[in-house]
Amino acid sequence: MHQLIAFLLVAWALAWAPPAADAQDAYKIGAIFSITGPGSSLGIPERDTALMLEAEVNAKGGIRGPDGKARPVKIIIYDDASDETKAVLAAKKLIDEDKVAAIVGTTLSGTSLAILDTVQKAEVPLVSCAAAIKIVEPAAERKWIFKTPQSDFLIVGALVDHLKAKGLNKVGWLNVDYAFGQLGWIEFEKAAKKGDLTIVANEKFGQRDVDMTPQLTRVKAANPQAVIVWSIPPSASIATKNYADLGIKAPLFQSHGVGNKRYIELAGPGANGVLFPAGKLLVAEQLSDSDVQKPVLLAYAKAFEAKYGPRNTFGGHAWDALHLVFKAMEKAGADRGGIRSAIEQTKNFVGITGVFNFSPSDHNGLDRRAATMIQIVDGQWRLSK
How confident is the model at residue 15 (pLDDT cuts 50, 70, 90)? Predict the structure, then answer.
């Protein structure tokens, strides 16, 4: 009889005990990446980084919110296929159906710009992994929007400084004809004028073009001292191969959109000698030990490469975006407005892309320290002298 009573008491206690922390109790974060389509060489490492961080955080017990309770993290990832319409649909699903507290992504500038209206109206914080400055400016009209990659003007500034230092004043330019390339051109044209550079040729090509020889032939005829291509793989790699095939002697510069090994793999030997401005992740081992980012960069590179292969700057953009949300959730839990405010108040956050200092007027939070010049030498990244 006593055993029966004890059994019933245990059963009753189990029936009425509060449920253990599970997916229903998790902090939910949405993620939209270009896992397929032309932006996949950027989106795949972003997805991989998100999966890696979800596992790491949950292995440590999750995130301890403002109530002192630790909860697991659930990152809900959708592929926008590098398509603006699909990105909008994914954002709406994350907000309306999945009820996420924040969103990271998208991968591309065009898809990020496409979802701005959706997330702003829903008042959901978004930390974009795309570059265009228009994603976060003017900040007064982008209250809910932040981003982690260096803005076009910052990257372009590093490039123009390098060109001037090397006496390369006559420049040929080519850009992909969607948001990333077009906005890069706007910033470069302004910086070139300010830096007294002469643009002797200006050409465009399509995101899915398979041959840029006609455009590069016209650029070659203009006799530039340097040529800049503003795109991402695969088109950036195709342009590089065409450049080598035409035997153009002027040095070739690319954007930070080529900061992954896929660019080199697709471009082949033509990539050797190419220079581009980017963050420090690719050359982390070559940094001074006094660089505050070095330990963070090396730790991420080691963890990522153990699981997924060569590091790249795009995975780093997702690392930064997710860690900003994690840190904000420690202060605000799943409250969307609280997360937004906490990100905006973030100071001296040492990330992969740079050291972030956000404010109501700056939703990118990076300065010139976040950009350095890198050169490809024998298929490897090297700090440019």
Answer: very low
Q: Residue 38 in 3-state DSSP? A: coil
At 337, list the tokens.
């407005």
Contact between 341 and 239 (Cβ < 8 Å): no
Contacts of 115 (CB under 8 A, 6+ apart): 32, 87, 88, 90, 91, 106, 126
Does 1 score more than 60 pLDDT? no
Residue in the structure block whose two tokens are 């590089």: 240
Whether residue 20 is predicted with pLDDT greater than 90 in this model: the reply is no
Select from 369, 371, 366 the least CA-distant residue to 356. 366
Write 353-361 long-range contacts (CB < 8 A, 24+). Answer: 353/148, 353/149, 353/150, 353/279, 353/281, 353/313, 353/316, 353/317, 353/320, 354/150, 354/279, 354/293, 355/292, 355/293, 356/148, 356/320, 356/324, 358/146, 360/139, 361/139, 361/140
Residues near 235 by beta carbon (within 8 Å), at least 6 away in sequence: 38, 176, 205, 206, 207, 208, 209, 212
Q: What is the largest CA-CA distance in the chain?
A: 99
Distance CA 282, CA 301 (A): 9
pLDDT at residue 14 is higher than 50? no
Average pLDDT over residues 133-153: 94
259-286: pLDDT as tens digits: 889 999 999 999 999 999 999 999 999 9
Residue whose C-alpha is closest to residue 161's, from 190, 183, 200, 191: 191
Tell me the pLDDT of the chain averaged across its residues.
93
Q: How do residues 159-192 score in pLDDT, each as one tens digit?
A: 999 999 999 999 999 999 988 899 899 999 999 9
299: Cβ contacts below 8 Å, ≥ 6 apart: none
**45, 241 contact by CB (below 8 A):** no
Continuous segment of H or E residues that includes residue 325? helix 313-332
H/E element, 112: helix 109-122
pLDDT attached to residue 6: 45
Question: Measured in whole angstroms, how far is the alpha carbon of residue 123 from the centre of its chain?
Answer: 22
The count of other CB atoms within 10 Å of the CB of residue 312 is 27
